[in-house]
Amino acid sequence: MSGRVILAPLAGIADTPFRLIVKRFGAALVYTEMISAEGLVRAGLGSLRLLCFKPEEKPIGVQIFGSDPERIASACQLVNKHKPDLIDLNCGCPVRKVVRKNGGAALLRDLKLLEKILVAVKRSSELPVTLKIRSGWDQDNLVASKVAKIAEECGASAITVHPRTQREGYSKKADWSIIAGVKKQVGIPVIGSGDVFSPHDAKDMLDGTGCDAVMIGRGCFGNPWIFSRTNHFLKHGELLPEPSMEEKILTCLEHAQLSVKAYGESGGVKRMRKHLVWYTKGMPGSKELRQKLFTLESLRQVREAFYAYLKRAEAE
């Protein structure tokens, strides 16, 4: 892996088109969207589709979730055939439909089961195994350091720590001191996650916690430049300017074209709608533009809307 800035495994967002865009802007490592181990074992089309990636996306990790050690082990055997660079076990997703099946962050309430899963995954995988966790289930059960030690003892290659509990979701400020605490407890690489929205945030996390790399999630929504700008800032101590409005629009159109190529005209544009909103956030007069973009159904219409917007902006 070249670099210290990583794309998070963002469900519904980090698909191949988005991963290709952030790779172009310098993401050192990307992940698939979170994939159900049970879905893979049952050969569910949706799960198998999420497992696909292009060679130019590498290095790439496949993130899976589940609660049955043997089913997850079987899923890992399927993942091995696709030859990603690593398998990541999700032990942090706070979403109700995941935790009610005892997956994601629910594993932080049952560390014996989590350990059994890690052992089974290591036994079945030819690839490095990592895991992504939260700080615990709630503030009365902060187990990040304990889980990190278990992971290291089971042979995990790295651990990503998002320092919020399941109960907190994405509310409150991420407590980076938990990342620092985990880093002091284990010898394996620790990746920090949570509230990284700028190059300064990334540097502050690295300096303040001692973590080995930074994972960016919500901070890259409509903002793939955060990877290139952060890489430059970490290397040279110089903050590059924000991209121009024209650069944002051209990158957005490139992303839309990749989406249409992957999902077809209608599906690709519909899947892009949330990205169109994010890319245009903060542009002058963008409220009206976003409202229009959210109704469009073809790439041609998207291009025409952007070109009309640029023409109006130049005339003002």
Number of separate domains: 2
What order do the SSEs take from the amino end to the carboxyl end, as H and E?
EHEEHHEHEHHEHEHEHEHHHHH
Poorly predicted regions: none
Shape: globular
Protein architecture, described:
There is one protein chain. With 316 residues, the chain is of the alpha/beta class. It has two domains: 5-236, Aldolase class I (TIM Barrel, Alpha-Beta Barrel); 245-315, Orthogonal Bundle (Non-ribosomal Peptide Synthetase Peptidyl Carrier Protein, Chain A). Helices cover 49% and strands 14% of the residues. It has 14 helices and nine strands. Helix 12 packs antiparallel against helix 13 (286-293). The protein is globular.
Summary, kept brief:
The protein is α/β, with parallel strands linked by helices.
Strand and helix layout:
Layout: E1 5-7, H1 16-24, E2 30-31, E3 35-36, H2 37-41, H3 45-50, E4 60-65, H4 69-82, E5 86-91, H5 96-99, H6 111-124, E6 129-136, H7 144-153, E7 158-165, H8 176-185, E8 190-193, H9 199-209, E9 213-216, H10 225-236, H11 245-263, H12 265-280, H13 286-293, H14 299-315
Parallel strand pairs: 1-9, 2-4, 3-4, 4-5, 5-6, 6-7, 7-8, 8-9
